[in-house]
Amino acid sequence: MLCLYLIFIRLPVMIVTACICLALIYHWLSRHFLAKKNGRTAIR
User: Fold this and answer.
1) CA distances from 35 to 17, 19, 38, 42 (A)
2) Mind listing the pLDDT tens digit for each residue in 1-44?
3) Residue 2's pLDDT is what?
4) 32 exposure class (CB count in 10 Å sphere: 0-12, 13-18, 19+)
């Protein structure tokens, strides 16, 4: 029973963390490609 409880607590946290990570990666990639498309070197 405790295992299920821990899983149900951790699952939303993991999903939120994954979403934040994906959003950051997407943001970085889009900035990188936009900078490349404009002919400037991307900072970071």
Assistant:
1) 27, 24, 5, 5
2) 788 888 889 999 999 999 999 999 999 999 888 877 766 655 55
3) 83
4) middle
Please state the three-class secondary structure of the chain as a single string.
CHHHHHHHHHHHHHHHHHHHHHHHHHHHHHHHHHHHHCCCCCCC
Residue 28 is which amino acid?
W
And the tokens for 10?
């951790």
Burial class (CB within 10 angstroms; exposed 0-12, middle 13-18, buried 19+) of 35: middle
d(CA 33, CA 12): 31
